[in-house]
Amino acid sequence: MNKKTFILIITLLLLAGEASALGVTPGKTTINFKPGLERNVELTVLNNEQKDLSLALNVEGELSKYVTLEEKDIRLTPSEGSKTIRYKVKLPENIEKPGIQESKIIIREAKSVTEAGVIVGASLSVASILNINVPYEGKYAEANLFITSQEGEAIFVIQITNYGKEDIEKATASIDIFEGDKKIITLQTDEKPIGQQMRKELTTKWADTKPGTYKAKAKITYDGKKIETEKEFKTIGFLIKFIDVAVKNFNLGQIAKFQILLENAANEKAEDVYARMTLNDQTGRKIMDVESQRIQLQPQERKEVQAYWDTETVQKGNYGGKAELYANSEIWEAPMSMEVLQNEIKTRIGPTAMAVTETKTGYKTTPLIGMLVIALIIVNIAWYLYYKKKSKNKNNNQKDGKF
Amino acid sequence: MKTKTIIISNIIIILAFFILTTTITLSPGGETFERRPTFEWLGMPTGYTIMIDDNPDFSTPWTEKVEGKTYTPDKDLELGDYYWKVKGFRESNVQKFTIISKVSIKREEDEKLRNDGNARLKLDMQPGITGAVTLGINQTIKLEENVEEVIAEQDE
């Protein structure tokens, strides 16, 4: 083995287990074009692994000739976790092509070369993007549609950016909601003016949504121009609903037959649908845990299922527990209460079923105002008593002839 | 004198009440790399609604009800500028913060590359297919033997 080969092997072995890292922040800078604009931009090069780094900088891209780097080579020592570099952007009076013009400031790690001239491993480089946003002639906007869904409601936000040279006086949008090919509702957003290079958001809500998959087609109009965009979305909510829970011909001590009417409120088929109900007594002991049979439900279909409860050891009274619905391997649950009488069972399901069920975040503003009022009353009573006592003492002293 | 003392004591109580019910936002403010920053504020031990928006007018806020005086989102926020405030008994001041991108790539053992930053990356491998590989935050990729240079840039 000659000396060169030995050094190469040693170098390869050393580099194989060595970690290195390179970073830059910010990863993107956007500048809106203005004729003759000059701007200094700072970047921070990150030496996360605290290594000795020799780096070469250069600019690539459509508008690179308008970018001047302050330094083209930098070195970071192991004690330097980061280093600030600067570049200057000097834009011309006019750029013909409108839209976003991208350039990159590339920071390159020097290649590891052995004495024998062999390049070892891939070199790492990071780029910080410089976007010059050149406005379009006249009025020009681009739009993005965002949809967020929560229980029983979908919120539509259309983000519009004015990339034109002129202000937009009025932007608005209508959104058609489709279930399959059938249009089910049209929503209208608010109206807003949008200045040059500005971004605004138009919003609207769709209330009382049923769970399912829908398509939104948005038509955005701004000062006589149109943009269309569409998106598929899912509304949140459990597919299955309790419509009714009834127990007929009940006698305490016997087996109670629950007739549970379920509905598939969604626009998709529900598989493996069943209900489960559990009840506890005042001590927390479980006194009921029943399940219905399993069924399938087509969209909008209603079907009755049954569950049976042996009440041999059950006493008359009010009990709390929970009702659960299962479908498509998902679960929905709600508090449930039951009033068990001699010949009747009254069932309530939902947030109002149990007095003990509270909302997660209860605002304690009323007690605070109450505390203020009480504090004021106490202070004023204290003053009243103080002055009354003082006046009484004064009168007594006068009667005793001290004055 | 009597009336004056009573009025002053009442004013002191009302002022103390307003001071105690004031909510002040603490952090985040300024610039951060954290995509799920922890929001902290000062105020009475009561329930709050936190509002986060990329518009200073809070026209499309992300709202969340919170019991304590801190909140950490359960999903990443987009890069960019944000405004936030909390509403308890009274509404807090508005605080601005910016999530700035950090493009960072780390070479690990066995020629694996890790996205060590806070933004999704697009990797250009030379020689190879330009921009064909995207790397999520904290994801890794095994480098092919013939790759001589990897250029990482922000892809969001």
Distance between the termini of chain A: 122 Å
The proportion of residues in beta strands of chain B is 35-45%
Report the CATH superfamily of the largest domain in chain A: Immunoglobulins
As laid out across the biggest beta sheet of chain B, the strand order is 2-8-7-4-5
CATH topology of the largest domain in chain B: Immunoglobulin-like
Fraction in helix of chain B:
10-25%
N-end to C-end Cα span of chain B: 69 Å
What count of domains describes the coordinates of chain A? 3
Regions of chain B with pLDDT < 50 over 5+ consecutive residues?
none
* Beta-strand segment tally of chain A: 28
In short:
Chain A has 403 residues and is mainly beta. In chain A, 12% of the residues lie in helices and 54% in strands.
Verbal overview:
The complex is a heterodimer of chains A (403) and B (156). Chain A has helices spanning 3-16, 365-399, and strands at 20-25, 28-32, 38-46, 53-61, 67-69, 73-76, 82-90, 99-109, 112-113, 119-120, 123-134, 141-150, 153-162, 168-179, 182-188, 192-194, 199-207, 212-222, 225-235, 240-247, 255-264, 270-280, 286-291, 295-297, 302-310, 317-327, 330-340, 345-349. With 403 residues, chain A is mostly beta strands. In chain A, strands 22, 23, 24, 26, 27 and 28 form a six-stranded antiparallel β-sheet that branches. Chain A has a five-stranded mixed β-sheet with strand order 2-11-8-4-6, with no helix packed on it. In chain A, a hairpin with a 5-residue loop joins β9 and β10. The longest helix of chain A is centred in the C-terminal third of the chain and has 35 residues, at 365-399. The radius of gyration of chain A is 37 Å and the shape is extended. Chain B starts with a helix and ends with a strand. In chain B, the strands form four sheets. A five-stranded mixed β-sheet of chain B has the order 2-8-7-4-5, with no helix packed on it. In chain B, strands 1-3-6 form a three-stranded antiparallel β-sheet, with no helix packed on it. In chain B, strands 9-10-13 form a three-stranded antiparallel β-sheet, with no helix packed on it. Chain B folds into two domains: 2-99, Immunoglobulin-like (Sandwich), CATH 2.60.40.10; 105-154, no CATH class. In chain B, 12% of the residues lie in helices and 42% in strands. In chain B, β7 (80-87) and β8 (95-99) form a beta hairpin. Chain B is built from one helix and 14 strands, in the order αββββββββββββββ. The chains are: A mainly beta (403), B mainly beta (156). β1 (20-25) of chain A pairs antiparallel with β9 of chain B, so a sheet runs across the interface.
